[in-house]
Design a protein that fits this description.
This protein is of the alpha/beta class and about 475 residues long. It has 15 helices and 25 strands. The chain has a seven-stranded mixed sheet with strand order 15-18-19-14-13-21-22, with helices on both faces. Strands 10-9-8-11-12-24 form a six-stranded mixed sheet, with helices on both faces. It is globular and about 70 Å long. The protein starts with 7 loop residues before the first strand and ends with a strand. The structure holds nicotinamide-adenine-dinucleotide and the ligand O=C[C@H](O)CS(=O)(=O)O.
Amino acid sequence: MTTLTTGKQYGLYINGKWEQTAEMMEVLNKYNQEVTAHISVAEKEHVDAAVQGAKEAVKAPFSPYARYEVLMKAAQLLVERCEEFAQVLALEVGKPIRESRGEIERAAQTLVISAEEAKRIHGEGIPVEAAPGSENRMAFTVRVPVGVIAAITPFNVPVNLVCHKIGPALAAGNSVVLKPAEVTPICALMLAELMEEAGLPKGRLQVLTGDGAKIGEWLLENKDVNMFTFTGSPRVGEYIRSKAGLRKVALELGNNSATIVHNDANIEQAASLIAQKSFNNAGQVCISVQRVYVQEDIFASFIALLKQKTEKLVVGDPSDESTDIGPMIRIGEAERVESWVNEAVEQGATIALGGKRNGALYEPTILTHVNDDMKVCRQEVFGPVVSVATYKEKDEVIAKVNDSDYGLQAGLFTNDLQFAMKASREIEVGGLIVNDASAYRVDHMPYGGVKNSGNGKEGPKYAIEEMTEERIIVLNL
Ligand SMILES: NC(=O)c1ccc[n+]([C@@H]2O[C@H](COP(=O)([O-])OP(=O)(O)OC[C@H]3O[C@@H](n4cnc5c(N)ncnc54)[C@H](O)[C@@H]3O)[C@@H](O)[C@H]2O)c1
Ligand SMILES: O=C[C@H](O)CS(=O)(=O)O
């Protein structure tokens, strides 16, 4: 197998072999909607073979240092092939080429961090001798792999979010059965090829493509899967949790991220960062800024700056070096966003900028005069739309941010240390970003939400904790 070029047909990656199926599925170029490649469609027998192979592979020795070497080598290969991967991302996601390169650079870092963590997995001494009657005992814990991990990933960041699953899972000594999003599967298949070249033992990584709901169901039915790690929509996440039984489940789900701009903030900086972080990847980022709350004294000047900066963003062909915003993942998704904006306008919102659609391209859109119950505020837009509302008091805005089913990350621009500390105590999120927008992430930080945004943390160190079991060893001396 080589990399994506138009017309290519991809197989499933099972037990180190590429297997093409009779039924194939189209992968579209998201900018021109042309068929660019075909992927294989896994059936139940393929799912079971992949899980069985993963279960066998986990029994073979694979030392922490060997895991470190494989992951470091994979990171190096990814850096060398950055351009090739980025071109594929631009095609299959519609992600602008400069942003695509950024994703590949981050993914390589995620693999490096995972490699480093492979050498640091450790337990602790437990002073059991402190208990009466246990004077002659000693104890310590070790962390052991959970076994076979099913990793199910979304379309929007298909290289780095796959690396956030396979990196820590392999570093911890597990096997992985990966099910990438059906609309953006090619990069995951290329990653499997790269892992093999980096020396990953056969069977440690299996990749299944095809119908997400069917493969998901067969994975859930297979009792040899020990853990599910899922990134995607709350609807599917909740379903997986309901069917996984007593097995481990880690969920990274959606958000309708809020960012506060207080009247003492650097408004220029806030407007620049919010303009950038509301519209990256056409707003299809789980921590993308969706709700902005601006202190009412500075509303007019903030909106003027935000418009000025957003107007400069170039919408168009993701392969073009000058493009800032490419197409959404499907024309239907752009139509949904258009209908939500139109509905908000009917309910009293004003379009300060944008609001127009051309196929899958939706212009970066700023809404004002919104209320918290409009879909564009209450639900996850997952598109290039930001809604700006005002507030008077600190308690009021904290309550507004918290009036959400979600809680992944939030942003706060302020120079008031007391406010920043109050917000860090009271805002219900997995991460609060002070003097930046909600969409800040580096790959070694703990990352994950509360409420309907999920549970469990990613970032290799934290994911490894989820992907291992703590076992206590007690010595009776
Ligand atoms: N919190 C995070 O880190 C994070 C990161 C990226 C995306 N997301 C969220 O992902 C969503 C967008 O991604 P999406 O549209 O690809 O999500 P999605 O839930 O539609 O799909 C995610 C994955 O689940 C698979 N799937 C679909 N039905 C399934 C089923 N019944 N059982 C098992 N798997 C099934 C899909 O094929 C895909 O691989 C947004 O809500 C976004 O916020 C969250
Ligand atoms: O879509 C959500 C992603 O987790 C954000 S990031 O690409 O990891 O920064």
